[in-house]
Automatic annotation (TrEMBL):
Membrane topology: Multi-pass membrane protein
Organism: Circaetus pectoralis (black-chested snake-eagle)
InterPro entries linked to this entry: MAL, Marvel, MARVEL-CKLF_proteins
Highest rank taxon of the organism: Eukaryota
Record flagged with keyword Membrane: yes
Signal peptide positions on this chain: none
Localization per Swiss-Prot or TrEMBL: Membrane
Encoding gene per record: Mall
Designated name of the protein: MALL protein
GO molecular function: structural constituent of myelin sheath
Transmembrane segments: 27-51, 57-80, 92-112, 132-152
Length: 153
């Protein structure tokens, strides 16, 4: 006697590949993270890195995060993940750690902004540093959103 059992569909969400990456939360945050992070290091580079110790760390965090996020975006676009659950863990750990690093960088950039207010090129460098601080905090927020929204899929 053959029993007919209904096929059970997998309830695990699939990881996006191709253009679907840009339509799926949290993966849609990757491109804004890259763009805002790029603005951070461009704006700091425009100030001639007035405070090397502070802004050197900010440049390192923003540039390395942009490059790693770009590699992650490319790997999602080309489907290198092969729908493995390990990619979710990797993605969450990377974005969580980067959010912490970016928070430290954003605070240091805010400190550099305050210190540049009374510098020799004060109006221009202050405005550039203010914009860099703004984008650093926005980028931090995007990384935090990405890291936490993986759990709510």
């Amino acid at each position: 006697m053959a029993s007919a059992s209904p096929s059970v569909a997998s309830t695990q969400p699939t990881l996006p590949s191709g253009p679907a990456v840009f339509k799926t939360v949290p993966y849609a945050f990757i491109l804004p993270e890259i763009l805002c992070g790029t603005w951070v290091w461009i704006l700091i580079a425009a100030t001639s890195v007035s405070f090397p110790l502070l802004q050197g760390w900010v440049m390192y965090v923003s540039l390395s995060s942009c490059l790693i996020s770009l590699l992650l975006l490319i790997s999602y676009l080309f489907g290198f993940h092969k729908n493995s659950e390990n990619w979710k863990v990797l993605d969450s750990l990377y974005h969580g750690a980067t959010a912490i690093l970016y928070m430290s960088a954003a605070v240091l950039q805010a400190n550099a902004t305050i210190r540049s207010e009374l510098g020799p090129n004060s109006p221009l460098y202050y405005q550039l540093n203010s914009a860099a601080s703004f984008f650093a905090f926005i980028t931090t927020f995007l990384y935090i959103l990405h890291a936490f929204s993986i759990y709510y899929q």
